[in-house]
Amino acid sequence: MDPVTLETRRLVLRPFGPGDADAVYDACQDEDIQFYTPVPVPFGRQDAEKRVCEEWPQGWARDDNYLLGAFRRDTSALVGSYCLTRVSRGVYELGYWAVKEQRGRGYTVEAARALCDWGWATLDVHRIEWWAMTGNTGSRAVAERLGFTVEGTLRNRGTANDGEPHDWWVGGLVRP
Contact, 67 vs 82, CB < 8 A? Predict the structure, then answer.
């Protein structure tokens, strides 16, 4: 699928490009992003370049991982990364991280809602899932504001970058 650009009142969601590598690198120095999301630790500039130039565009080309960067309209500052990833037929996972300095302003809910709305309208989606390691209360608050039902806690579901197993929350949002 060809990448898309989505717009909200305060944000532009667009595919990352080579010029965004520095902003992605800076954002991913945050300890919370390194702990709660699947990024290499330490996260180097070459990791940012590989993602924005290779990995993230490949998701669109494969038609299975639709990842967009959200940027503020007023300053063009990076707000975060938002993706819908195919899990199985009709089921996608919503993933996101937000730049530390942009948190707490409602941008993540705004961006994630725009991406989910696009998914409902464009993809053959009947369920969107959200997963987060327990303790990631910011991610859970966003999911709940989006209308996800937290369906349970999976014990020792996966390991984090610390190499230890952790419990994970799972939630679902079904076609409106």
Answer: yes
- Helix count (H) and strand count (E) of the chain? 6, 8
**Which tokens is 140 given?**
């859970």
Report the b/e string of 77-90 with b at 16+ CB within 10 A: ebbbbbbbebeeee
User: pLDDT grade, residue 161 (50/70/90)?
Assistant: confident
User: Taking the chain, what is the end-to-end CA distance rounded to the nearest angstrom?
Assistant: 24
Residue 17 falls inside a structural domain: yes
The DSSP element (H or E) to which 93 belongs, if any, is strand 91-98
Residue 93 is assigned to a structural domain of this protein: yes
Kindly report the CA angle at 116 between 108 and 18, in degrees rounded to 5? 65
Q: Is residue 1 one of the residues assigned to a domain?
A: no
Neighbouring-strand partners of residue 91: 88, 127
Instruction: Return the pLDDT at 29.
Output: 98
For the stretch 85-126, pLDDT in tens is 999 999 999 999 999 999 999 999 999 999 999 999 999 999
Domain that holds residue 18: 6-174
Of the candidates 147, 23, 2, 6, the one whose C-alpha atom is nearest the C-alpha of residue 97 is 23
> Please, which residues have CB within 8 angstroms of residue 170's CB and are 6 or more apart in sequence?
129, 130, 131, 150, 151, 152, 153, 154
Domains held by the chain: number: 1
